[in-house]
Amino acid sequence: MEYAQATGLLGNVWLLVAIPLASAALLLLLGRRADRWGHWLGVLAPAASFVLGLVLFAQLSGLENKSVELSLWDFIDVFSFKVDFGLLYDPLSAIFVLLITGVGSLIHVYAVEYMRHDEGRRRFFGYFNLFVAAMLLLVLGNNYVMLYVGWEGVGLASYLLISFWYTRPAAATAGKKAFLMNRVGDAGFAIAIFAMFAALGTTQYDEVFNGVGALSSGLVLAIGLLLLLGACGKSGQFPLQAWLPDAMEGPTPVSALIHAATMVTAGVYLIARSNPVFSANETLQTVVVSIGALTLVIGCIIGCAKDDIKRVLAWSTVSQIGYMFLGVGLGGGAYALAIVHLLAHGFFKAGLFLGAGSVMHGMHDQTDIRRFGGLAKHMRITWATFGLGWLAIIGMFPFSGFFSKEPIIAAAFEREGWTAWLFGGAALLGAALTAFYMTRLFVLTFHGKPRWTEDIKHPHESPALMTIPLILLAVGSVGAGFLLSTSVPDWLTPVLPEHGEEAHGVLSHTVITILSLLVTVLGAGGAWLLFRNGTQEQEQPAGVLVTAARRNLYADSFNEWVFERPGIYLTRALVFLDNRGIDGLVNGLAAAVGGGSSRLRRTQTGFVRSYAMSILTGALVVTAAFVALQLGWLV
Amino acid sequence: MSSFPYLSVLTVAPLVGALVVAFLPRSRPQLAKVVTLVWSLGILAVTVALWIAFEAGGERLQLRESYPWIPDWGVNFTFAVDGIALVMLMLIAVLVPIVILAAWHEADDSGRSVPVYFALLLALESTMLGVFAAADVFLFYVFFEVMLVPMYFLIGSYGGARRQYAAVKFFLYSLVGGLFMLAAVVGLWVVGGNTFDWQALTQIDMSTGTERWLFLGFFLAFAIKAPFFPFHTWLPDAGGTAPVGAGALLVGILDKVGTFGILRYCLPIFPNASKYFAPLALVLGVIGIIYAALLAVGQNDIKRLVSYTSIAHFGFIGVGIFAFTTQAGTGAVLYMVNHGLATGLLFLVVGMLVARRGSALITDFGGAGKTLPVLAGVLFFAGLASLAMPGTAPFVSEFLVLIGTFTVNKPIAIIATLGIVLAAAYVLWMVQRTVQGTPNPALAEVEGMRHDITLREKVVVAPLIALIILFGFYPKPITDVINPAVQATMQDIGATDPVPTAITEAAK
Q: In which element (H, E) is residue A86 found?
């Protein structure tokens, strides 16, 4: 594998990153001077990158091998370790560029209105642009170190935006939690890079992929698992899923862009980009599939039990990314299927989150779905667009989720033996549960009788700046699936494995299609029947499973009791030990040398004496050493 | 060959400046400040000229000057620099004017002489430049010890609470280390044929036992100075008590004398002993990374917290030095520079917050970002640099240390990598407890907390931020200078980089 150098118009690919980065720098450095117009600059930057992305996309599709590289400068150059500050523009990164800047621009427009009354709006757009720049760098880097730089960059932007309202303790804590859990994954990712360098002497994509064949299968497994750890951290997959729902403390546009459409899918990108590594080891692929299947079920179960509109959507993100992990883990043609689902999900999930924001906007920032109800009449556009997103995510024909999710379920059934039933079954179960909890969310919010809090009299539809992005994303929810599923796999073939002849799984494709539609209708119908008349306004006592689901299946408690508390006690014990133990020992020694610790603490007079004493002792030591050396004792 | 005696001028000029400033009338503090600042900028200009005169790919030690001092003992004023010393000189020359500007009002209310405070800073600069420029072991030792004197008075006379305790502790600690080194210096003179010349001493043969004992003498002194675990307990006291200007120089530069000493003296002069003790040093380094990071998490005094982060960072530098690969070695030296910039910035911005609040206790803050948004932002940026965020300079050095260590010692590298998680923990928790969260009601009554960053403070932090970002994306100007010196050091100890395993296996 080798990439051609970028020439002509494609030589401008660096501008994709530079434009939002420059805008972010301006917005953050100019301070209040930019308050009046800063948000428009913030919108313009990703929009400009999007337009450029379209132009470059057209250029790229005209090339024979559809991949170009652009080396900007030597990033790190220390003997055999050379890292290029270089970009790779190929079908995979090109399509991500369009997703990030396209959906990103719409969400930026929405945020102009959503953040209108926030005094920190300019700062918000500064961080938002910083995120876009880092995310573009992540997908455009031509080696793993560049990917890592972008990776940490989006983590930083995510932290800044989750804790955007930093005077709220919950927001500050959630930001920190996200950053720390991500760093656990990042440590794994970093070690994977070290291992690549130790084994292959390079971190450039093409050289690593060409060299994978020379590595022992154990080493491939180790590198893959470490990359996977990084991917799980960023994408909120088991066992590092607990930060993502807390990330909803950030403003809703942040949840839509970062914690639904783009950043959290970076783990999927990492695995898809590294497909030569992952395809080289079957055990590794099985681990990825297992994590995907497990996480998608976990996400669904918890999603069913939540009453906060954003948390339900957050857990559904965890679950949908589980489908994507399932896809990239299955390997072969399923890599492309996962990317298709990622893109389709980017549209409908962003739309759902923005819809949720629109609802909150009209309901005094209420997020509890038990206190919504009957909003369809009052927010026609939000209702209609959210409804289309809902149909898309549950995979109803002919909406986009049907075309993107169902093929992954079918691919899971194509595995050999009992694992087909296990993973395919999990994916089907997930589809049923998704239909259930998303229908519950939709019905409780927009239908039935109003259960609003007293202060709300007339919920209102959001202004045009918010509804236009909603409409555009809803159009994507309807049409994107079919278009993407027919065109994207071919477009991606230079990067990802081709979709081969349809394998014969344990069930025929037609049966699976019918089954998945059937469970979807059952799940959705069940929820409709249960919740069409509303629900209790307060939390009700519940059985073991529901209680566990409400508490995120005790993952937070586990982290608290296994990591946080012991960590705090360890820290306290060490502080004590350091002051009393090591330092005590040293002070004791010093006291012995200086003639009593009381003098140590006294002022100048005591010091002079102890200083004299030290000099004397020192002189003795020196003389002794000198004599000893002369006599050869020490030698 | 340049005829200008850069190195002796650099060493003497600050001392002359110190004398001039010290004798300025106490009633005219402003004059003393301006003279000191201008003087330090002049020294920066000379250092820039030195940087230009230095040939990156040329001889190992350049710009050598030698003047007889005590001929009977073979002691000379010999100055010369390699790439490692050069970048440290530049770091000093850049940091000192910044620190002087940051410490502008620091001595105003101390009740003590303002000119003397600034004279001490210049005197400290002289000894710091001298210790890195020396190429004679005895001269190095003298600077190593004399350096303590201005620092002692800076902490002891101008520091915070318990300053006497901290100053004496600092002094005694360093003195004990220095005495071990003195013994080793004398021993080296005996076995080395009565010379203190560094170049000559790298060529001598000694028995295994002698080499190990002498190595330990030097190493102990450097390990205390750096400080490495378990010789670190003086730093939190000294760093926590030192006035901000002196503290920034203490954690920003003085510490590096230890790691520089190891690179310049331990490794080339005692190559076999260095290899013998390397596993021990690696273990101490990695313990330091984890241990100090955990302690930093548990601190309630911001200045002590910064001191502990510094100890953790020195764990990384120690690991990088003793891994004996070019990547780790270059990473360690680069780390020294970046740590000076990043921790210097962190210490200075913490000082700005502490000066406003009148307290260094984290619990006395809380929600300070509300009234001090820009300072909070600078604190956050300095924290990011401290946790080695990509895009800031420390990332490159930490990554180099880790990747270079991984190729030869996987367990050490993996444990050290866990340190990056802990680094995020201590930085973010500190940020959360000081500038985020519900504003502490007590802050409303503190006048200082209502005034965000001043113009002077902006001038202090701006160059550091700019350099941290510049070297975060383009470290080549520094690594190009360091690389040859590190390579020469690796050759001294006979270490070669491992070949990628896939290539060795393919060859079989």
A: strand A81-89
Interface pTM, i.e. ipTM:
0.93
Chain B touched by A629 (CB under 8 Å): yes
Q: What is the CA radius of gyration of chain B?
A: 22
Q: Which two tokens stand for residue B448?
A: 């200082």
From first to last of its 508 residues, what are the pLDDT tens digits of chain B? 457 899 999 999 999 999 999 998 888 888 999 999 999 999 999 999 999 999 888 888 898 888 888 888 888 899 999 999 999 999 999 999 999 999 998 888 877 888 999 999 999 999 999 999 999 999 999 999 899 889 888 888 888 778 888 888 888 888 888 888 999 998 888 888 888 888 888 888 888 888 899 999 999 999 998 888 888 888 888 888 888 888 899 888 998 999 999 999 999 999 999 999 999 999 999 999 999 999 998 888 898 999 999 999 999 999 999 999 999 999 999 999 999 999 999 999 999 999 888 888 888 888 888 889 999 999 999 999 999 999 999 999 999 999 999 999 999 999 999 999 999 999 999 999 999 988 888 888 888 888 888 899 999 999 999 999 999 999 999 999 999 999 999 998 888 888 888 777 766 6
The CA distance from B312 to B306, in Å, is 10
Cβ contact B255:B170 at 8 Å: no
- Rounded to two decimals, what is the model's pTM? 0.91
Contact A444, A370 (CB under 8 A): yes
Task: Tell me the chain A residues in contact with residue B435 when contact means C-beta distances shorter than 8 Å.
Answer: 166
Best of B185, B399, B476 to mutate (most A CBs within 10 Å, chain A) = B399
Using alpha carbons, select from A199, A82, A80, A78 the residue that is nearest to residue B500: A199
**Is B255:B147 a contact under the CB 8 Å cutoff?**
no
Cα distance between residue B7 and residue B11, in whole Å: 6
DSSP track, B383-435: HHHHTT-TTSHHHHHHHHHHHHHHTT-HHHHHHHHHHHHHHHHHHHHHHHHHT
Phi, psi of B435 (to 5 degrees): -105, -15
Verify whether the Cβ–Cβ distance A187 to B421 is below 8 Å.
Answer: yes
Calpha distance A587→A101 (Å, rounded): 60
Q: Nearest residue on chain B to A196, judged by CA atoms?
A: B500
Closest CA to A125 of A57, A41, A186, A7: A41
Chain A residues inside the 8 Å CB shell of B295:
571, 574-575, 578
Looking at CA atoms only, how far is residue A38 from chain B in angstroms? 18
Q: Does A574 touch chain B (CB under 8 A)?
A: yes
Angle (nearest 5°) at CA B261 between B258 and B264: 155
Helix (H) or strand (E) holding B151, with range, is helix B148-158
In this structure, what are the phi and psi dihedrals at residue A89, rounded to the nearest 5 degrees?
-110, 105
Between B179, B233, B499, which is nearest A618 by CB?
A: B179
CB contact at 8 A, A27 and A126 = yes
